[in-house]
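seq as requested:
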Amino acid sequence: MDWFYCQHGICAIDLDDCVNESRELNEIAQNVIADFPNAYIEKSPSGRGLHIYFKASNFNYDTNIYYINNCKLGIEVYIAGVTKRFLTLTGDVFQNGNLEEMKDTLPPFLEVFMKLPSIVRQNDIEETVPYLSDESVIEKANKSVNGEKFRKLWNGDIPSYESRSEADLALASIIAFWCGRDIEQMDRLFRESGLMRNK
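struct tokens:
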């Protein structure tokens, strides 16, 4: 094994505990990898995580807007000029790819997965503003790896589920992922879905 430090524009994304024993990815990893289709990806030393490598030369990373480590989602970024920590290179290839320039790909990823919650004050009460609008949540869920599954659930199509409760949970999980588990937004969106209308 070797050590990787962010330099010369080379960056990395560390996804924790996202691979099961059958090499199946959780939903977060599926959607992140879909944003970096040509990147070089290795398994982490534990075999349960992934390291995504790419280039983003001279990228201006604003730590006042984005997390470096989003513990809730299990995602950490290693950006040249910003991150002083290192990753372990394992050589255990998950996806063969190249260290391509992906400077334009990084901002959309950061907006969805790494954006810090904005705080506003209304009537002296602090509230966390959802980082995606309701329309954006629906749009991104539609275009995600599990887009077909989302569309069926959203429209109330549940024949592949043994019970209504299982279908409700499946849709709620997808919505929770894309709205950052904002309870009010989750409830509002679920009430707009076909599952709610059919009750």
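The chain has two domains: 2-116, 120-197.
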